[in-house]
Amino acid sequence: TVDAESLSHVYDGAGHGIKAAEASDAKGTTIEYSTDGESWSGTIPQFTEYREEGYLVHVRAKNDNYSNVAEADVVFRITKRPIKVAAGILETEYDGSEKAVTEFTYTVSNKENTAGALKDHKVSAVLKNNKRTEAGEQTVSVEENSVRILSGEADVTKNYAVSLEDGKLTVKRKDGL
């Protein structure tokens, strides 16, 4: 028999694969891996990007002392990396000109490297309801599906689980008319 274990890893832009398989009789046994069931290698396949269905890895153990080939299928998953994108906050006094919240913030990679934007990734977003001239206040939002995350020129947004947070624009009344 061959023992192979499914694993998962939070997206971090690096390659990851299943745990090395083991055969019930290691002496003289060759373990091979395949992602298509046709091309086999002794190297564990590596995966870098999120894919909803995960990555199917075929594992087989061959040994000249046995008449059969032991096989197993496992699924390796890259899970989406959580990131929070928040519209900015602006509080200003009325002066007759249009005011706008133009900034947003986002979480950066945490110490454990399991959440936030990776160091070399650039985040962009579109803000809505972010302009006001008259005194008053309003909620500013990040437009749904507007967040884009790039690694160089490559769009890697699909690898992130994006949550949105509102901001606020406040134009305070001016004292004395």
TrEMBL record:
It comes from the Bacteria. This is Uncharacterized protein. It comes from Hungatella hathewayi DSM 13479.
